[in-house]
Specification:
The complex is a heterodimer of chains A (111) and B (115). Chain A is built from no helices and 9 strands. Chain A has 111 residues and is mainly beta. In chain B, strands 2, 4, 5, 6, 9, 10 and 11 form a 7-stranded mixed β-sheet that branches. In chain B, strands 1-3-8-7 form a 4-stranded antiparallel β-sheet, with no helix packed on it. Classes of the chains: A mainly beta (111), B mainly beta (115). At the A-B interface, strand 4 of A face strand 4, strand 5, strand 9 and strand 10 of B.
């Protein structure tokens, strides 16, 4: 399973676009990149998943360059309610299916 | 369709007592995972179960901890003779199948406090 590295914290203001980059230098060929969001006192919530290039859904976009050694989660026009911890996970779950969480990036959105 | 349910949400135990944490997966989900989270840390995998079977318990301490997912009823994470270091948030997740094509849905967690 790929080890991931991401910034410990980020600050932003309402209405801005936020990009959180995650590095995963030893990602394997069959690994996917998955992002989860966690609010205080709640369980993590799936945001987006991708393998390569760009994936977009109603919440975010995920950019993965050709070498797949990093990925960027893009949150358009953040609001105060986007304040949370964002986790980048690399892996395919294998036969076990367990997810490997790092410490995540604590995003603080200010008015 | 109700999400993953966990109870109790908060549990207080004294050292040496037993803690039982329950998890009801989403309807149609047969895969259950338990994770533990310490303050300011990410979640740590503990155990992965399918109905009546433990598939992977590599993240679970060998002593005092056990998990089950019976044919009928919720999954149970049991901690015997709790110690202060067991104080944490315990999250359960469920999925229809194995990632990456089967997203894990997390419950709200059980916050265990050991006095």
């Amino acid at each position: 399973l790929a080890k991931t590295t991401q910034p410990i914290s980020m600050d932003s203001y309402e209405g801005q676009e936020v990009n959180i980059t995650c590095s995963h230098n030893n990602i394997a060929t069959n690994d996917y990149i998955t992002w989860y969001q966690q609010f205080p006192s709640q369980g993590p919530r799936f945001i987006i998943q991708g393998y390569k290039t760009k994936v977009t859904n109603e919440v975010a976009s995920l950019f993965i360059p050709a070498d797949r050694k990093s990925s960027t989660l893009s949150l358009p026009r953040v609001s105060l309610s986007d304040t949370a911890v964002y986790y980048c996970l690399g892996g395919n779950g294998g036969s076990q299916g367990n997810l490997i969480f790092g410490k995540g990036t604590k995003l603080s959105v200010k008015p | 369709n109700a999400g993953v349910m966990q109870n109790p949400r908060h549990l207080v135990r004294r050292r040496g007592q037993e803690a039982r944490l329950r998890c009801s997966p989403m309807k149609g989900h047969s895969h259950v995972y338990w994770y533990r989270q310490l303050p300011e840390e990410g979640l740590k995998f503990m155990v992965y179960l399918q109905k009546e079977n433990i598939i992977d318990e590599s993240g679970m301490p060998k002593e005092r901890f056990s998990a089950e997912f019976p044919k009928e009823g919720p999954s149970i994470l049991r901690i015997q003779q709790v110690v202060r270091g067991d104080s944490a948030a315990y999250f359960c997740a469920s999925s229809k199948g194995l990632p990456p094509n089967n997203e894990q849905f997390f419950g709200p967690g059980t916050r265990l406090t050991v006095l």
